[in-house]
Amino acid sequence: MLSLEPRKTDAADRRTAAPSRAAGIGWLIGGSTVGMALAFLLATGYLQDAPMPDSLATLLWYGVRAAGIAAYLVLWLSTVAGLLISGRFPARWLPGNVTLPVHELTGLALSLVALHIVLLLGDRFAGFTPDALVIPFRATYRPLWTTCGIVALYLMATVYFSINLRPRIGYRAWRLIHYFGFLAFVLAAVHGLATGTDSTTPAMRLTFAVTAASVALLTAWRYWRSASGGTRKPAR
Hints:
- The chain is mainly alpha-helical.
- The protein has one domain (about 10-225).
- The chain is about 70% helix and about 0% strand.
- It has helices at about 10-45, 55-85, 95-105, 105-120, 145-160, 165-170, 170-180, 180-195, 200-225.
- The two termini are about 20 Å apart.
- The model is unreliable at about 5-15 and about 230-235 (pLDDT under 50).
């Protein structure tokens, strides 16, 4: 998601990118549909006074956490790939036919976030309502940290769909919008750390430490390359 210095594309590149964007949209629609159906069944099946069985509540919790963590890791991979591309990382180690498809996984990340959100509707402990999952500071469960996740989602979507507006808004405006990707990643990491009930476990702490450190190091690499003249100015 975070390629701040995009490649100069030709007709072949555009033909390759089109199916990738279509696949991303397909993941978004498919994942959202499945998640909403499952969340609807869970949420409406226990609207009466009868409590949700512990086994089902536990299964739902695992689904919520799995979707959220998977979305974060896919966002991290996309961000890292974008930094490798923009920083002109040596192609002999990571060729473009590897990094570019990974960079374009933001659509998958968005679909996983959508699944994470709709599954939360069935979580009776947190008590999320539809408006609390899309409007900042409406949640009663850790409202500040939940808001970080909501804002991260909006920033991800803005950056992802801005590529379609680049011919109209120009390179400079598009590049400025693309910087939101940094903030989206940071907010997603903060959201995951502060709201996850398993975030204090050694495995999750290690996950967040490694992902955050790798993005920080590659960001420093990218700006060092830019300052030393290692990156080329893209065509407008």
